[in-house]
Amino acid sequence: MGKPTMEDVAARAGVSRALVSLVMRNAPNVSAQRRAAVRKAADELGYSPHVMARSLASRTSTVLGVMVNDLRNAFFADVVEGLDAAAQAAGFDLILNTGGRIPSREGAALRSLLSFRPAGVVLLSPVVPAAAIEAAARQCPVVLVSRTSRLSTVDTVNDDGEAGAALAVEHLAQLGHRRIAHLDGGGAAGAAARRRGFRQAMRAHGLEPIVVRSEHTDTAGEKAVQELLSSYSPAPTALLAGNDFNAVGAISALEEHGLRVPEDVSVVGYDNTSLASLRHISLTTVDQPRAEMARLAFDALLERVRGERTEPVRHLLHPSLVVRETTGPNSGEAQR
Amino acid sequence: MGKPTMEDVAARAGVSRALVSLVMRNAPNVSAQRRAAVRKAADELGYSPHVMARSLASRTSTVLGVMVNDLRNAFFADVVEGLDAAAQAAGFDLILNTGGRIPSREGAALRSLLSFRPAGVVLLSPVVPAAAIEAAARQCPVVLVSRTSRLSTVDTVNDDGEAGAALAVEHLAQLGHRRIAHLDGGGAAGAAARRRGFRQAMRAHGLEPIVVRSEHTDTAGEKAVQELLSSYSPAPTALLAGNDFNAVGAISALEEHGLRVPEDVSVVGYDNTSLASLRHISLTTVDQPRAEMARLAFDALLERVRGERTEPVRHLLHPSLVVRETTGPNSGEAQR
DNA sequence: GCCCTTGATTAGAGCGCTCTAAGCTTGTAG
DNA sequence: CTACAAGCTTAGAGCGCTCTAATCAAGGGC
Questions:
Q1: What is the spatial distance between Cα B185 and Cα B246, in angstroms, rounded to a whole number?
Q2: Using one digit for the tens of pLDDT, what is the confidence trace for B264-279?
């Protein structure tokens, strides 16, 4: 438990504390001989510099705060992995928090992150009020992922939900579908953009958009399908779910109603989580480039940290469609 | 970007820095009047204490290092969520790292965590050599989750994989199954215990254990089933997969072979991930109490931090069986 | 031989906080 | 009126490090 300090290393190597500091930071202008002696002493003592002390003394931080509202959501877990990869490569460390989509908890989590005086903060789909974000941005660079903002002090990284939804509609229309319904994600992250994109794309194809309110869970997907089947007499032949979980729930409900996927009804998900790629599910879905989103978020932070940029940046990533086995041609059912 | 310091608050409130420190720590023996004045000044300035400076000065740490090998694995994501919940409640913060199941990367990640001089470190299913763990344990309390160890300086939290496998075998035997196969997880965390438990339980029921080598992925599950069906002439009527993903892959392969689940073959998973509870899959599986594991890991750390305990503790949690719709009675097929 | 440069090393202040010990008020007993 | 305890408040050292400025040795030019 006794952790050696720089002073201990200096004593053992017979040099000053300052010299040890220079060696630990790989500074130039240290003779090879002393450098070796210091390295040796450090190794023998199992010494490694105290990050917090370094941070305090150098008035710089190598810590990145990350607030995620739900790690169980594979989308966020993937983004965190991506952030960690970028951070490790650049010598940064992540301090991680969850906010549980509860504004008060997220606020506390954010404050907790800021008390580390991090180099920057990444908020994954936060629900805190804009004022809280603005306040945070006064302390350090802030990047929002899966949330938009008009604040000129924060950067944002989002996937283009409108384009993603349009991609799905395009695909389904090409397969001959006319009656296409969207299971709306409600207030969830990105749901509004998807809904908007769905509506626009449908109209662009001269089709009437059908939107059923749902949530980003599988049980909500089941419920939405039941509602859909009971309220629309010629049932839709295709569905764009709010996300993958929602899609899987929808598929369950469809099958319970004796409708086969994709023969009777095509289903498209959103997110391309690991769930979608399971052979047993093999869901056609819209892929958000999570690794790239993480990379961009990290880079945006770094640019601000280095003072290379002061104007906000708005990344809108283009999603792509991954066609699997839950979509197929409209089965010749009367074209209305 | 200009962060106020304790000195600023002191000046504004017209008191000394030390008094501000006392107020921020909710120390007793501060007059209500001064306390209010300090609070007010702090609020107006948007001040919150610098955790790192505090840590340095107080020679204590409120940081917990967490190394996880793969956040994408829902099991680990759940444990991290649990750790975060416990940490937040106790005023600790998590610094999070991934090691990717690569010893060298995990080693670097661990060193990185230790350079924060954390109060303790939690390693989730690490693959680093015992020597590295021992070295870490000399620096601060270490808890291993999903990995065993004989080191008297570290605590461990594991689920009882033997009992879990036995639970599954018990369930299947009770349903009349005799030819039960286990898709072995190979070198994955916990796989050895499950294999052992499976073999023992089978023998205890007077049954011949069938073990096929696999991995903890769905594609491996498919492959394993194909192998199984081609090498065992009376095909097994029940399967215990290595984990849930593996089980889903197995189900796909079974269905492709025209075998229905559970009518022809029963399938049991392991982990009870969110996947398993999807109605569309509805997998019978063994549940590891992840939240409790996280809680115990945190508590073990805290006990060591507080010096309340020096002997190692070995938590072996009892898993439970969650029966859903992928298991059913042996369909009267010749009882061998 | 002297002055300067150049590169290597170190002293010492200070980062923002905690903590111990000392100082300052009061109130009260003698 | 003095003494002293109890309750508040503060001075000042120090946590482990970085960084600036100073020191020092070793040449090199004249």
A1: 9
A2: 999 999 999 988 998 8
Q: What is the pLDDT of residues B125-169, one digit of tens each?
A: 999 999 999 999 999 999 999 999 999 999 999 999 999 999 999
Is the CA virtual torsion B25, B27, B32, B35 positive or negative? negative
* Separation of alpha carbons B98 and B114, rounded Å: 14
- Tokens in use for B106? 């995990």
pTM: 0.92
B160 vs A: CB within 8 A: no
DSSP codes, B30-50: --HHHHHHHHHHHHHHT----
Choose among A112, A139, A245: nearest Cβ to B93: A112
Residues in Cβ contact with A53 at an 8 Å cutoff, skipping those fewer than 6 apart: B56
* Structure-token match 């197995």, residue found: B250
Buried b (16+ CB within 10 A) or exposed e, B182-211: bbbbeebbbbbbbbebbbebbeebebebbe
% pLDDT > 70, chain A: 98
Identify any residues that bridge with A267 across adjacent strands, giving them in sequence order.
A239
- pLDDT digit string, tens, across residues A218-231: 999 999 999 999 99
Probe site for chain B from A66, A94, A280 (most B CB atoms < 10 A): A280
Q: From CA A78, how far away is CA B71, in angstroms rounded?
A: 7
Put simply, the answer to whether A112 touches B88 (Cβ < 8 Å) is yes
**Strand C, nucleotides covered by protein (CB < 7 Å):** 7-12, 14-20
Distance measured from the CA of protein residue B336 to the C1' of nucleotide C14, in angstroms:
82
